[in-house]
Amino acid sequence: MKPIVLCGPTASGKTELALELARQTNGIILSADSRQVYQRLTVGTAKPEGTWQNGAYLVGGVPYHLVDFLDVTDTFNAGTFKTRAQELLDKNLGKQIIFAGGTGMYLHAFFVGMDELPAGTPQTRAALQTLLETKGKEGLHAELAKQDPVSAAVIPPGNVQRTMRALELYLLTGKPASELKSGNFFKLPTQDSSFWVYLNWEKDALNARITERTEQIFDGMADEARALLSAGYTADTPALKSLGYPQAIAYLHGDLSRAEAVERVATLTRQYAKRQRTWFNRYTNALRITLARPEDFDAKKITREILSRV
């Protein structure tokens, strides 16, 4: 019984569809969301509301794994996701497994594989931050072009994060990042190992959903941020760097009005959704569910289509 993978941008309905699929198949869900892992953040991460019973997080009776277990001060990454997800698959042999989430790198790491590259160090990060502050992003990219012209040719000068990571790999290993990578990044999951479904919303319709959801969740997000700050956590806490929470904190501090904060969160979410669409479009062998209007999203109907194809 191959896993079903539901992917797509934020606000596309992955959670609702995953729950319907799980109910229809008596399956379990594995979340592939880098922010729903955190405890104490539910509204702002669109984590499905559930309860912990006998060591399992249940949403309407459906086991929903890899959510609501991580302390807000901890971090999580694709490698850890891969390990935890495999453990869950091994424990649930014979069950229909449904992966659902928008963190594409987690899904890619599990089903295709990612290169095992060395982690950064405080020293390398400090050196690169100093280079960025003194020479700017153009100077940072020029340094990458000198040390690793292949990587510099494919990384835009404005993408500071990727530029710094490529330079960091060079500092750590003495080899260009382009020589360290195996090419797994560009591969597709095999169709006999998993069945992928991509919720392909038209841009304007998805943006409308994002705007509506941001308005609905913002006050709850602000309440969650307020509770953590009141408990002594700082704005630099890893969980509070999640999309939307810095703007909620700015609102709580009086630096932004509510309307300004909501608009900024919506804008950032739309930008994130655009990056997700770019990432998930690579999976050309996925079943694409095209959605143009709110009424197009019918979880029961889509579930029937998926189950007829698996």
Please, could you describe this protein's structure?
By secondary structure, the protein is α/β, with parallel strands linked by helices. 50% of the residues lie in helices and 11% in strands. It has eleven helices and eight strands. An eight-stranded mixed sheet has the order 3-4-5-2-6-1-7-8, sandwiched between helices. Strand 3 and strand 4 form a beta hairpin. Helix 8 packs across helix 9. 37% of the residues are buried. The mean pLDDT is 93.
Compile the SSE list and pairings:
Elements lengths: L3 E4 L6 H12 L2 E4 L19 E3 L2 E4 L2 E4 L12 H14 L5 E4 L3 H8 L10 H26 L1 H6 L5 H14 L3 H4 L14 E7 L1 H28 L14 H8 L5 H23 L6 E5 L7 H11 L1
Parallel strand pairs: 1-6, 1-7, 2-5, 2-6, 7-8
Antiparallel strand pairs: 3-4, 4-5
Helix pairs in contact: 1-11, 2-3, 4-6, 8-9, 8-10, 9-10
Based on Cα principal axes, name the global outline: globular
List how many beta strands DSSP finds.
8
Structural class: alpha/beta
Helical element count?
11
Terminal-residue CA separation: 9 Å
Average pLDDT number:
93
- Portion of residues in beta strands equals 5-15%
Radius of gyration: 20 Å
Helical content (DSSP H or I, runs of 4+): 40-55%
Characteristics of this structure?
about 300 residues; alpha/beta; 11 helices; about 50% helix; globular
